[in-house]
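Box 3.1 A note on notation
Throughout this textbook, protein chains are presented in two layers. The first layer is the amino acid sequence; the second is a token string describing backbone geometry. Keep the layers aligned when reading.
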Amino acid sequence: MKVDVLGLGAVAMDIVLQCEDLPREDGFAFVHEEKLLPGGSCANVLVTLANMGACCSILAKVGDDQYGNILIKDLKGAGVSTHYLLTKKGGTTLHTFITVAPNGSKAIFANLGDSFLSLSEDEVNLEMLKSVRIFYTDMFAGRPALKLARLCREKGIPVFFNLECTPSFMELCRVSRGELEEMISLCDLFCSSREGLLELSAKADGMEAGLAVYKKYLPEAGVIATLGDKGAIWINKEETLVAPAFRVKVSDTTGAGDAFAGGLIYSHFIRGCDMKPSIEFASACAAIKCMQPGPRLKANEADVRRFLEHHQNESILENQGARNEQRR
């Protein structure tokens, strides 16, 4: 069976706490609603892709506890193959506690458990890449991800590396700076938040950081910096493309970066779109996710196209109104 995207990375259970505000030091915050939602950055990306119609498979390890069983069932229901989703006997599955304020801002507390980082190099092999078009990873766990990325380089399979956390946090998750830098040099497209790029480059500005990281590692398809409500920047050897964020009413920003990554993979690597329409599609996925509660995007390709058309028409009307006002 042909697999559009094989993803190696985090699959987690998210305990989402809707609060009137994020807790302050020595302070209190009331929880108005509590939900148990399947998540994890890699799983979120693959579910986004499956919703678009892509054939996806996840490679990760969970415990055989309640959370692990729920996650396996959920991914199967979402259309993501769990053939390579391994189970650790007696293990504890990665789970997070996410506090979300009314404006969509959040704080995340992660309980790593003892399963997802226990995935070893011996448990991944070349056979897993058979008929795979794109390899996606967030480097959870690091060494198995590197092993497959090296094999992808030999086989000519594009690698999309999404740095979900800062390098200093990755070190806490047993991914060394050297391993991180090797993955950036192996990947075809590298995506990171502003904070991750700032740490990697020791620069103070997001654009400068993105340029510095690109010039150092030269990934074939470039470097993408996701900047939240400031949009995203895509840098490669041909151009530097800036994509503003769409203006929407934010409900929950959790998983917006995952929706962006999934949308970008689908539009650029699977659909074969150029940079501009690809990053616009990805930005639309992130914007729609921000309007929805929970960690995963609930939209298909047609939904995203309608969103883009609506905002394009809205922009045309705004420009016409501005021109009419100038004439007066």
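The longest helix spans residues 301-327. The radius of gyration is 20 Å.
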